[in-house]
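Worked problem 6 (solution included).
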Amino acid sequence: MGIVINIKNEIGGLDFAGSRGSGELIREKMKPVLDNGGDVTLDFTGIESITQSFADEIVGIFVRAFGIDYIKDSLRLNNANDSIKQTLNFVISYSKKKMA
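Solution. The predicted structure is:
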């Protein structure tokens, strides 16, 4: 079981995902699928960049709460440009160091 989340649709058609609130809504859609062992594909079609706050909501919080393995094998990225990947990787690295 898995879902595809189109980021652009979720944030109202913008090409920039910057709001922590938008990230929180996406994280809330991701969590039940991940909890049940499903896969989540985040589709970044039409998104130019994201903020660290947005990235923290969609990946950082999971890493700090449950460890990297919680998302490592279950999270897929579609159409994420280098800037988006760099931001996500930075937040994941930072969050791994901050695990409780």
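Discussion: The longest helix spans residues 20-35.
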